[in-house]
Amino acid sequence: MSSFNETLSTLDTFVWGPLFLIPLLLGTGLLLTVRLRGLQFRTLFIALRHGLIDRNDQSGEGDISNYQALTTALAATVGVGNIVGVATAISVGGPGSLFWMWVTGLVGMASKYAEAFLGVRFRTTDSAGEQSGGPQYYLERGIKGPVGKILGISFTFFAIIASFGIGNLTQANAVATGMHDAFGIQPWISGVIMFVCLGAVLLGGVQAIGRVTSAFVPLMILIYVVGAIVVLCINAAKIPGALALVFTDAFTGTAAAGGFLGSGIILALQMGVARGIFSNESGMGSASIAAAAAKTSHPVRQGLVSMTQTFIDTIIVVSFTGLVIISTGTWDQGKQNAGTMTADAFSTALPGHWGGMIVSVSLIFFAFSTIIGWSYYGERCMERLFGRHGALPYRLIFTVVVFFGATTELETVWTLADLANGLMALPNLIGLLVLSGLVARETLAYLRFDPKLRASHEDVAAYVANENNGWK
């Protein structure tokens, strides 16, 4: 078993190393940023308004609102990575890792836009009359021939594995740990509670998932961010120094201090990008599965709404976690303390057990929401391979597995989940590069027609008919 773990760890290190996936992820995001003319910077406020204030673009086909699609994707991405993942990156790569997480988030917004655009652009209607899309469809339908088919099947296979790893076992374990730390509840009891709650949600399908996530995802993010703001206000005098560390250490490396062993620039970059992708999933293609279910009158509209998910996840939530850890001085405790580092940081500023309680409760909600979001991703991929009748067996197995995640040690599963993430991203990134011309051409054309996303359904329908590019 130890040799198997070592092999997995070696493969994981290579896939997420500085010579393979990291340059491909950053390179794809940069290329899309250039081809889309800095879309994520030019249209960010328009996209936030359309997704969070306008909310419902009910004029197009789809199963859930664009806001519910956004919160479903946020449910899957705002998870353990936003708390433990950030702490792990900083504990290994130093404060400079936070800078590279920001870079990953900013260029990743272009990747997230492109994959959500393609998810809607090439979505199809399944046998139950629901919209289904994502890399498992757009890779094959957008890239003709055997190459597209191989890429699509590869993504589907690795996404199913990832759904049980990053999307279930590891998250369930985090929930059980949080329940025990915060309330003294035994892991098997947490497993039973999650089994019942998850089963109840999954029985209702994507509509139930959309209703649940739209209700509690904004609340859970708000509670965590407010707690972080209080900590930062108390340590306001240390914020300039923390920011200086982030920027200087990103390009010079970090000297050994306390329990921190020191790191170079490459390690800071590697940890920042790897944990950044683990947190926001940009380039992995998973969020486009939720985007494809949205009611929208045009792929550009949902692409822009989905793009804001990366901004909220990384530029907001991850930033608060990182700055709290660095400004409170808990970042140098060493990798072995990464699991409790964020709670320790909150506890240094908040009275009594409030700091640890906020982090534990946030971890519970973040992790459980990730389970809900990934259940939908995995189910859609199962349907792609086995048809609609593959959905129910997947739901049953997925619900049972959550109990084992709560009650089992998962060192090997964490490594396998990380590896599956990388292998899942690879075919999607190749597809984004191949289809980048189509994405840029149709996006820029639509934004010339409707730059503020204010066009009526009738005007958009007339525009689509005039373009005649295959989108309906």
TrEMBL record:
Question: How is this protein situated with respect to the membrane?
Answer: Multi-pass membrane protein
Q: Enumerate the InterPro entries for this protein.
A: Na/Ala_symport (IPR001463)
Q: Give the range the annotation lists for the signal sequence.
A: none
Q: Name one GO molecular function term.
A: amino acid:sodium symporter activity
Subcellular compartments: Cell membrane
Q: Quick one: a GO cellular component term?
A: plasma membrane
- The record lists the membrane-crossing segments as 14-34, 150-168, 188-209, 216-237, 243-269, 311-331, 351-376, 396-417, 429-447
The UniProt keyword set, sorted, is: Cell membrane, Membrane, Symport, Transmembrane, Transmembrane helix, Transport
- Similarity annotation: Belongs to the alanine or glycine:cation symporter (AGCS) (TC 2.A.25) family.
What protein name is recorded for this chain?
A: Amino acid carrier protein
The coding gene here is alaP
